[in-house]
Amino acid sequence: MASGSGDEEGNTEGGSWRLIGPVEGLSKKRCRLMYCSLGFNSDVCLFYVKGEFFAMDARCAHSGGPLCEGDIEEADGVLQVFCPWHDYDFNLRTGKSGTSLQQQVYEVKLEDGNVYVKHANRLSLEPFPADQKS
Q1: What is the DSSP string of 59-90?
Q2: What is the pTM assigned to this prediction?
Q3: What is the DSSP letter of 134?
């Protein structure tokens, strides 16, 4: 494994590699919500599109819309997610929008059949109990 695992609390700049789960299971859905230990506004979407994983903040930078529920389209070779609330588009690789908005994106790596996301806080496919949020 590279630099860290899913159960470490990473407060270093850039974060730590967080184990999300096996590629085999995670590649069966186009988008999964990853809950962040900081709570609702820090959750992350894990997208699987055209054989690649991408991760970005789950709430739209415009008004907080749920990007995991957005449509994913390819235009001129660029994969984009569209917010279901106001149709803002975000490049899955860079987080840039056709507007001045920007979504935070996170590095994703595959190692030993597992998906890892580089993030400063714990991530989980299940909600954190209220007493474990930090």
Answers
A1: B-TTT--BGGGSEEEEETTEEEEE-TTT--EE
A2: 0.85
A3: -
Q: Which amino acid is at 129?
A: P
Location of structure tokens 């609702």: 40
User: At residue 86, what are phi and psi to the nearest 5 degrees?
Assistant: -130, 10
**In contact, 105 and 83? CB cutoff 8 Å:** no
Type of residue found at 47: F
Query: Residue 40 carries which side chain, given as an amino acid letter?
Result: F
Please give the chain's pLDDT, 134 residues, in tens.
Answer: 222 333 333 333 579 999 999 999 999 999 999 999 998 889 999 999 999 999 999 999 999 999 999 999 998 899 999 999 999 999 999 999 999 999 999 999 999 999 999 999 999 999 988 765 55
3-state secondary structure of 45: strand
Backbone φ, ψ for residue 66 (5° rounding): -80, 100
**Which residues make Cβ contacts (< 8 Å) with residue 1, sequence separation at least 6?**
17, 111, 112, 116
